[in-house]
Amino acid sequence: MSDNRALQRAHVLANHILRSPPLPSNLSLTREVCLQYSPPELNESYGFEVKEMRKLLDGHNVEDRDWLYGLMMQSNLFNRKERGGKIFVSPDYNQTMEQQREITMKRIWHLLERGVFQGWLTEAGPDAELKKLALLEVCGIFDHSLSIKLGVHFFLWGNAVKFFGTRRHHEKWLKNTEDYLVKGCFAMTELGHGSNVRGIETVTTYDSRTGEFVINTPCESAQKYWIGGAAKHATHTIVFSQLIINGTNQGVHAFIAQIRDQDGNICPNIRIADCGHKIGLNGVDNGRIWFDNLRIPRENLLNSVADVSSDGQYVSAIKDPDQRFGAFMAPLTSGRVTIASSAIYSAKVGLSIAIRYSLSRRAFSVTANGPEVLLLDYPSHQRRLLPLLAKTYAMSFAANYLKMIYVKRTPETNKAIHVVSSGLKAVLTWHNMRTLQECREAVGGQGVKTENLVGQLKGEFDVQTTFEGDNNVLMQQVSKALFAEYVSCKKRNKPFKGLGLEHMNSSRPVLPAELTSSTLRCSQFQKNVFCLRERDLLERFTSEVAQLQGRGESRELSFLVNHQLAEDLGKAFTEKAILQTILDAEAKLAAGSVKDVLGLVRSMYALICLEEDPSFLRYGYLSRDNIGDVRREVSKLCGELRPHALALVTSFGIPDAFLAPIAFNWVEANAWSSKEKKDLETQDAMVVDSPPWMPWTLKLIGYSRIHEMSEHRALRRAHVLANHILRSPPLPSNLALTRESCLQYSPPELNESYGFDVKEMRKLLDGHSLEDRDWLYGLMMQSDLFNRKERGGKVFVSPDYNQTTEQQRDISVKRIRYLLEKGVFQGWLTETAPEAELKKFAMYEVCGIYDYSFSAKLGVHFLLWGNAVKFFGTKRHHDKWLKDTEDYVVKGCFAMTELGHGSNVKGIETVTTYDPRTEEFVINTPCESAQKYWIGEAANNATHAIVISQLDINGTNQGVHVFIAQIRDQDGNICPNIRIADCGHKIGLNGVDNGRIWYCTQQLYVMLSYLIPRVCPSLKTAHYDYRFDNLRIPRENLLNSVADVSSDGQYLSAIKNPDQRFGAFLAPLTSGRVTIASSAVYSAKLGLAVAIRYSLSRRAFSAVKDGPEVLLLDYPSHQRRLLPLLAKTYAMSFAANHLKRIYVKRTPETNKAIHVLSSGLKAALTWHNMRTLQECREACGGQGLKTENRVGHLKGDYDVQTTFEGDNNVLMQQVSKALFAEYVSCKKRNKPFKGLGLEHMNSSRPVLPSELTSSTLRCSQFQKNVFRLRERDLLERFTSEVALFQGRGESREFSFLLNHQLSEDLSKAFTEKAILQTVLDAEAKLPAGSIKDVLGLVRSMYALICLEEDPSFLRYGYLSRDNVGDVRREVSKLCGELRPHTLALVTSFGIPDAFLAPIAFNWVEANAWSSV
Q1: Cα angle vertex 1264, ends 1262, 1265, to 5°?
Q2: What is the pTM of this model?
Q3: Does residue 533 sit in the same domain as residue 655?
Q4: Which of 8-17, 193-202, 300-309, 1164-1173 shows the lowest per-residue confidence on average (mean pLDDT)?
């Protein structure tokens, strides 16, 4: 070879060995520097003192926090590992539930031995309590399971003894609890009663002959449920029970009961079962407890509020039962305090990782051939993260304020603490979940890896929205408390004092009509507008409730009917309280940089609240112009906060080790060299002996003998035991507590009727291949490979998620083999007719309903690898590969995504050259960021890969092309010149073996790593990188339907334009977006089927005093949570079917329209799925956390859909750009619009009626008109704004970026209008009848909820405030009209019962002892 080629070759080889930057090359493809990590600290500066800011944010005990951080970092028990040259500590989530529980207890013993818990119960005073709260927060930053275990033991069990008990209890229990000689749990929640503590069914009576209380679980719904620590470790429990004295129910009281002896054996008269595997917190051993006449000493009643004398007399200074119940509940506020605070620290972790990553990760460029841009320099990315950062700051001050008033509480402040803690617990935990979801998507696929924390934290902290009080219930409590305070003050004609309502003693604030930048940033204006909202909503709410009460309705029912106003009011109160805390903190600061930056943060918090809450527009506090001013100001603040982003997250004070590898050198953390480094754990460090047990001084309380009892008590005892054995209803009793029957399951089918033919509706929804679907459902139900299990008398099939990654992968492969043998995949690649493609889609959807890992593996093999061969290849490839692929002789994967390039396919760095001497292509991975990443099937199973690579021919980069490369031989050995590493454990899809691929020369690497330092010592001082090269493949392995290379190295393509050629390569990949969109809808169907069926049999609270408990779905608020999502899912089903049909009948002429529509639908439908699953999880309460109930786990499995096969935000930008191009083209050529659904713009602009009646709102023509008006106006606005910037000399791409919000509004308008049209088309084909009538209701619900939820309709003046009020009321009416059809609507999804979840049916029996 020439000297130049020899030199180039030598440097390439040296780069592999010595890891230096590449030698500059004259090849046009090669950049001066490959994509690399640049620490943010090199480019970002701190504009204020971060240590001072941290003191403000942590608020207290900074030194104690740092001490505990240090303890954890020193021990290998906390899973120390090295990534990218840094040490990290975080849990290993690739463990079974049992392993996670074991390591959590070892960590507790480790911290106990080092004095971490000293004084947690035996020291009193605000400072001691604040220290305890600080240390608990640090534990939660490491692992929420660890903090929950400690919280149950110290804050629930320990505080119950402390606050419910008296001196005799303190002396007996507190010190032993602090030393972990007693391990406590807290048995309040029951299967049938979570938030409704008053309704619990456990019964305790008193036996005056023996001086003992007797605790019973009278029925299955009374079993204690979700009891942290109960399943394995706890020795004692606090039992909340109804107390019956002499036949009178005295209400809920608290008792101490021993449940295990000192050897860990369960005590007599107690049964304990495990709650099972969960979507998070698997280090906590949640259990279920039944009591069978458990006898405990009289002294075990915690008697600070009430007592029972030895002769059985009930004694209490508080005579009113409601006040007595309140006294019992008041000390439990600590739970809400710790939850609110820990939620904010979780959001801090997520934001620290996402923002640091965005300060070093680059994507795309804003000019042709320009450098790629840092993520956080994109205005759209700033808009995603910086408002959440400001909210997290504001909420940090609020959490600190809550802690301060809690530790200094008095009887007079308890009410205010209850209200503030209720609001903050709800708002802060919802904020955390939203923040973590946004951060997960903002870091792309990296957020799916559990070692990067962000995605995993969602599963760990999801429970917070429903435990210690369901968030929706807590927000109702806030509004009820404000209502009571308002009515009381008005009735007594006294000024407001307390609950922050003092501002209502002054006149109503008057806001300026025009809002300048200085006005919007003025703290007084911000206070005024927040106070105005709270004041007005409180007056509206009180007025509406009073009106209904005046018509004879109960107060409770009046609250329920006005639940939306109640929600608005609860939010207004809480956000105003948060604002006040940051104002108070800011006021204490001296002038300087910290105060200046905090002022920006405060203004961002205030203004993003104004922008996001429709109340400000809906009720007229601000005008449309005002909201426009707010929106622009938020964007300006994003730009001003951008330089401070690094300093702001550094001020959180979380050590680097507690963040994630991608927060730092994400390239090196994913490098091959990092794979080879072992974790720093040692065998000795993993074994921590429990401290020796001190002599037990506690008397065992369990009794095994049967005491003498009255005939009545003997009879009751017999029936309690019979209930456990024979599962019969409990014996009716004359005890005042006992109802005619305990809470029981009543099948929805007994009370609900089908108002239409569900089979016919299913045909519409599935759209095609029904018999094929049912055949495949049947195949899965027949095989034990699909984890058949019985719950509540029914058989279910769903994956077992209490398995390691390796186990889940193994069973996924076995399931594929099983279906292969049954002929399921026959014709998936070799049959080409539209109906064959639709059949394949149907089978794929059914597989996804069972397990998304399963369908994802099939998708990689058939839809990515197989379709790439089919559509990119020609006959020679089809003949060679397709049949073997269909028969699984060849197992394919699809290597497009790289570490450094996900959505930006044009920018990938893998390089392929051609060697005419051997007629081979040579594939290289020139740098670490070019490694193929997230390649499904690559880690274990694939034998071949589609490689997407830049093609360099004779020094000219011809752009991205597609090649076939063998990566394993038939024995599963990795082929020479290739390296493969595992992507590791993920938040979902662990049945898919995602891998990373480097194309390299392994033999040369080994040889040269030895020879070069000896033969050519001078190279040791050069700065070479560790690179890979020279995987050789035959020329025929270029998939050549678009372009080819002749044997002598000539590049051949009929498409000369590189952009058009790139488009031709990507067009066939649309199938990925089609299947993702469709599978997302089926996931939402599954979630809704479970949640709605559960809500049709689960009851909670009562609407009238002492009345029966109400079905969840009979609450208007619960209907509002689920039924609009149900309507959207229906509409999106028709849209997904439409997309599949136009895809399978595609032509070159329709490819553009399919690309645009699939981009919009993929984004809209996957976002909808994630929102739906989150709402369904919360709507099912704690049951949604159990993986066997599916809803919660689906979130982890399907989360990846929002960022793979095109990041959703990028896809939505593509939609708006395509509409822009179409608009400009038609206007420029003066031609009518044709295609992309813009034909309506050839007609005059729709005119909407000023008054909207019910019939108008439900009219399909009105709905079409208002959706078209929005799309038309936004397209014209977007085009105009882009043209304005271009006229000022900005590039088109940069002009798009600056108008990203209009772009987002436009793409949403386009997609929602397209979805509506598909429902209208389906409806138009139906004959008159019940199906058409119900579908009309569903279509109207879809249309109107879109009008209600999108602020664009108000912001841009398409609808007036009165119109939007009409829409809101109509949606509520539609909820009531759809309520009788809900069971039929979810049954029409056609998902067999076996693929749903136990709680969708007999949730009582499924959790019964007999099912254990």
Answers
A1: 65
A2: 0.91
A3: yes
A4: 8-17
Cα–Cα distances in angstroms (integers) from residue 326 to residues 305, 332, 472, in the given order = 10, 10, 20
CB-based burial label for 1227 (10 Å; 0-12, 13-18, 19+): exposed
> Domain end: 628, 647, 666, which one?
666
In a domain, 661, yes or no: yes
Q: What is the pLDDT of residue 710?
A: 38
Per-residue pLDDT reduced to its tens digit, 1080-1091 = 999 999 999 999
**Does residue 1252 belong to any structural domain of this protein?**
no
Helix (H) or strand (E) holding 249: strand 248-258
DSSP alpha helices (H): ranges in 75-114?
97-113
pLDDT tier, 675 (very low <50, low <70, confident <90, very high otherwise): low
Is residue 372 in some structural domain?
yes
CA 66, chain centre distance (Å): 30
What pLDDT does residue 730 have?
A: 33
> How many other CB atoms are there within 10 angstroms of residue 815's CB atom?
24
Closest to 145 in 3D by CA, of 572, 457, 474, 360: 457
Is there a single domain that holds both residue 642 and residue 765? no
Residue 368 CB partners (closer than 8 Å, separation 6+): none
pLDDT at residue 1139 is higher than 70: yes
d(CA 394, CA 906): 40
Provide the pLDDT for residue 2: 43
Extract the tokens encoding 1026.
């560790």
Which amino acid is it at 568? Answer: D
Looking up tokens 């992309």 gives: 1236
Spell out a b/e string for 1123-1160, using b for 16 or more CB atoms within 10 Å of the CB, else e: bbbbbbbbbbbbbbbbbbbbbbebeeeebbbbbbbbbb
Question: What mean pLDDT is predicted for residues 391-414?
Answer: 96
Contact 360, 374 (CB under 8 A): yes
Contact 1263, 1131 (CB under 8 A): no
Query: What is the spatial distance between Cα 469 and Cα 1178, in angstroms, rounded to a whole number?
Result: 12
* Number of domains the chain is built from: 2
Residue 1244 within any structural domain of the chain: no
| Residue ranges making up the domain that contains 1367 | 757-786+800-850+1058-1218+1305-1406
Same domain, 647 and 773: no
Average pLDDT over every residue of 316-328: 88
What pLDDT was estimated at residue 744?
Answer: 66
CATH assignment of the domain containing 1120:
1.20.140.10
| Cα R_g (the chain), whole angstroms | 32
